[in-house]
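protien #1 (seq + structre)
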Amino acid sequence: MAARKEPMKIVYGPIISPCLGKAIAVDPIGRHPKACSFNCVYCRLGSHGIMLHERAVFIEDDIMLEQIGECEHGDDCCGVLFKGTGDPFLASNIFSAARKIKEASSKKVGVMTNCSLLGQPEVLKELDAFDVIIVKLDAATEGTFQMVNRPHPSISFSDVLSGIREARLSFHGSFRMRVTLVRENLHEMGEISRICREMCPDYLYLNLPELCDPSHQVSKREAQAAWEKFNDIPCISQSDM
């Protein structure tokens, strides 16, 4: 897929990021409707978009770096976080962009991923381009994975779980996890917490979606009961962010 010649604004912020503090957010996909390997039921961008599982250059490095440079000069900006309109690892040039940011600045660089590509050898070997990675885990079984994350047909839950395990072993930076609670995965919180415990993340972020259909949302009482299953893992809940 060819890079877009005149991309939309792909850098925004500063945002308050629980993993990097005051940070610049970078979207290396830059598409509306979204282009992603998942179509999660709680996605803030809605359900419309393109389902992809092949990596490509969407936005050239120099365009990303130019927009980042315009935003990150403040002394109170602590880092750069890749996230946005699709899994950041779909952008095949994300690692070169991350390294160029680190060469030009002492700020930390993080990435938030849905893990659909995390197990690919070309991704695993480049993870140390980042200081922080945040991996998403919203299910403990294939059925719930399909129901909540609605992945590209080529992606299985076992592949995602294997990718998380491999990344945990090979990545030398701060490894963090993120769990989003919805009606469809409420019954699996005990097993999801067991998997998180197995991965020993440095931090775990517990999230409730804000901009999804109310039919997917849970009550405060249900959320509190679910979060108690994670009590022995270093956690930051949505109320702490």
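ok now protien #2
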Amino acid sequence: MFTLEGKFTHLDCFGKSAHMILAVGGKAVRLLIEDPQAVTVQGHQGTVEFTCGAQKGRAVVVQYSIEENRKLGTVGLVRGLEFR
């Protein structure tokens, strides 16, 4: 499991899955959320509802496994989120 810290800038939705885009060191990093219900969320009370499109740039630490998908343009699979 790896971690990445950045600003949550965008969420592209595709049916049941989504691409989470983080700004990390001036670069955009795309991660796949294959099943939102399988992602552990910390630092937020209550239910987390993701909205597709532009985000507020909230600081987040993402736990992910390296599973590059060139077709989707993602570098990993999101396993956990910790909002700051």
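DSSP finds no helices and six strands in the chain.
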